[in-house]
Amino acid sequence: MTKKKTNLSDHAELPDGQSYKIGIAVARWNEEITSALLSGSKQTLIEAGVKEDNIKVIQVPGAFELTVASKMLLQTESFDGIIALGCVIKGETSHNEYINNAVANGLTQLSLVSGKPCTFGLLTPNDMQQALDRSGGKHGNKGHEAAATVLEMIALKKSLTEPASKIGY
Ligand code: DLZ
C-alpha cells in the first residue's frame, strides 16, 4: 500500500545547488513563525550547496506584500527562483482568505510570466498551534519544503533548457 504523502521533503532528494541564485521574501507579520520558516529554508539551501552569497533575503510587512517583493527580486537580480514565506492566521473576519488567495494567485502569475519558480511558503493555519506545528513542529518545517521545491523546479528547468554536453560528436 502506498504511503499517503504529507510532507514534500520526505520524498525529495536535493539537487546540487552550487550554481543557483535564490531570493527569499519573508513577511514580518507573525515573526516568531516566519523566522522559523526562514531558518528552515536557508538550512535546506545551504545543505544543497547553494552559496550564502547567492541567497538574498528581503523582509516585507505582511504576507500581502510577498508577491510584489518577489517581483522586485526578479527584476533587480538574476535569481533562478524565489521562495515566499509568511503566515496568515485565521481570525474573526475573512481577511485570511483574501490575503492567501491573493498571494497564491500572485505567485502563480509571477512564476508563469517570469518562467521562474516562485514557491508558496505561506502558512494558512486556523490557529497559532497549527502554525507552530508547521514551522519546526510535528508537521515539519514548510520553509524547508518551499526551499526543496524551488531547488527541484530550478533543476527541472535547467534539465530542459541546458542540453547535456555531448562527447565525441
Ligand atoms: C492585516 C493583516 C492581518 C489582519 N493579518 C495578517 C496575518 O495574519 N499575516 C500576515 O502576514 N499579514 C497580515 N496582515 C497584513 C497584510 O498582509 C498586509 O501587510 C496589510 O494588509 C498591508 O497591505
Summary keywords:
Rossmann fold, four-stranded parallel beta sheet, 18% strand, 169 residues, alpha/beta, binds ligand DLZ, two-stranded antiparallel ribbon, globular, 6 helices
Could you explain the architecture of this structure?
This protein has about 170 residues and is of the alpha/beta class. It has a single domain, classed as Rossmann fold (3-Layer(aba) Sandwich), CATH 3.40.50.960. Helices cover about 45% and strands about 20% of the residues. The chain has 6 helices and 6 strands. A 4-stranded parallel sheet has the order 2-1-3-4, with helices on both faces. A two-stranded antiparallel ribbon has the order 5-6. Helix 2 links the parallel strand 1 and strand 2. Helix 2 crosses helix 6 and helix 3 runs parallel beside helix 4. The chain starts with 7 loop residues before the first helix and ends in an 8-residue tail after the last helix. The mean pLDDT is about 90. The site of ligand DLZ has 14 residues, from strand 3 and helix 4.
**Whole-number mean pLDDT:** 92
Report the CATH C-level class.
Alpha Beta
How does the major sheet shape up? 4 strands, parallel
Query: Span between N and C termini?
Result: 46 Å
| Ligands present | ligand DLZ
**Strand order of the biggest β-sheet:** 2-1-3-4
Q: Could you give me the name of the CATH homologous superfamily?
A: Lumazine/riboflavin synthase
Count the beta strands: 6
Helix content range: 40-55%
